[in-house]
Specification:
- The complex is a heterodimer.
- By secondary structure, chain A is an alpha/beta fold.
- Chain A contains seven helices and 13 strands.
- Chain A is globular and about 50 Å long.
- The longest helix of chain B has 15 residues.
- Chain B is 34% helix and 27% strand.
- In chain B, strands 1-2-3 form a three-stranded mixed beta sheet, with helices on one face.
- Classes of the chains: A alpha/beta, B alpha+beta.
- Strand 13 of chain A pairs parallel with strand 4 of chain B, so a sheet runs across the interface.
Chain lengths: 252, 89
């Protein structure tokens, strides 16, 4: 069994510092791994990243994060990443992390993700260069997630994103803004490659639980939504379980 | 669309860009006489900065604060996910 703690949208600023570390300290007894699904900061400054690093310094279990849209706002995402990595935090963007926990292997594939919308109401790679650029950013991100996820040969596979891969966990948000909150492209990848759990944030007014078309659980752990400093998950496989889709090879 | 409708859009832009606010998810209802602000804010100083900005931009309208402060609750028992990979067996 893997004990996983997760949260998103901490939006750290100087005004909120030292609020989370007293409760995150509990994770040293309760969790094997802590994942933070983006919007770590409010405006993406180095100072705010240092505040998050200080908050996380009390957590002794492995910590992996992805950045969110807020973490890009100041144009300092590279410095934010460096500060967090220097603090021992795994910052994932189109790559993956493998850990051994309690004799089992756990892989985390992480990417910020992007908008674009969902089947029946999504942007299309057509027309002006600006629209193509918007759509292709999401397409490229989905391709990077596919590569990161496919590389994981682990007992458990977790996908960590900021944007949502499904629209169910956006319920509660105004439907006109769904295309800015996520994209079906990421759910399609998850269903193709397989995973045990997808975690995301970004939708503060959304819903906590959903599944992909193939039934893979998706959880929105945005802090303003869940109203907890972290959410706990226990992942278990029973004996004989084949966790991922069996791929049929076509011979011609 | 009235001038009040345009004001909603301009307020949202300003709230996102303000370094002491940086919020995209405050809801605003604007009439000729008032602005109602709602949503969840994670600290009092951020709420104060947001309301001050709205008062300045929407003057002379009355600004009504319907925001809620984010009060974190103690964590709950874990959700247990058995064989969660879409049921592939």
């Amino acid at each position: 069994m893997i004990r996983l703690a997760a949260i998103a949208d901490t939006h750290c600023t100087q005004r909120t510092c030292d609020r989370l570390s007293p409760v995150w300290r509990e994770l040293n007894d309760k969790a094997d791994l802590f994942l933070v699904a983006g919007d770590l900061t409010t405006t993406g400054t180095a100072q705010e990243a240092e505040i998050l690093a200080r908050e996380l310094s009390v957590v002794d279990v492995p910590v992996a994060v992805v950045l969110g849209n807020h973490d890009y706002h100041a144009g300092a995402e590279g410095e934010v990443t460096r500060i967090l990595r220097d603090a021992g935090i795994h910052v994932l963007e189109g790559d993956s992390l493998t850990l051994q926990i309690n004799g089992e292997s756990v892989g985390v594939a992480g990417i910020k993700g992007f908008g674009g919308g969902f089947v029946g109401a999504c942007a299309t790679d057509f027309g002006e260069p600006e629209m193509k650029s918007f759509v292709r950013h999401g397409t490229r991100a989905a391709a990077r997630l596919r590569d990161a996820l496919a590389r994981l040969d682990t007992d458990y596979r977790i996908v960590l994103m900021h944007y949502s891969p499904i629209d169910t966990t956006l319920n509660g948000e105004p439907p006109p803004i769904y295309p800015f909150l996520g994209s079906y492209l990421f759910a399609e990848v998850v269903d193709e490659i397989g995973a045990d759990l997808v975690l995301h944030g970004h939708a503060h007014h959304g819903s906590e639980k959903g599944v992909t078309a193939r039934g893979i659980p998706v959880r929105n752990v945005a802090m303003p939504l869940v109203r907890h400093p972290y959410v706990m998950f226990h992942l278990e496989h029973t004996e004989g379980y084949l966790p991922f889709p069996i791929r049929l090879t076509e011979h011609r | 669309m009235t001038s009040s409708d345009y004001l909603v859009a301009h307020l949202r832009e300003a709230l996102a860009a303000h370094p002491d606010v940086g919020m995209l998810d405050l809801y605003l209802e604007v009439t000729d006489r008032s602005v109602h602000v709602s949503g969840v804010v994670d600290c009092e100083s951020k709420r104060d900065a947001a309301l001050a900005l709205v008062r300045r931009m929407a003057a002379p309208r009355e600004v009504v604060d319907n925001t809620k402060l984010l009060n974190l609750l103690p964590s709950e028992p874990p959700e247990v996910l058995h064989d969660p990979s879409g049921g592939h067996r």
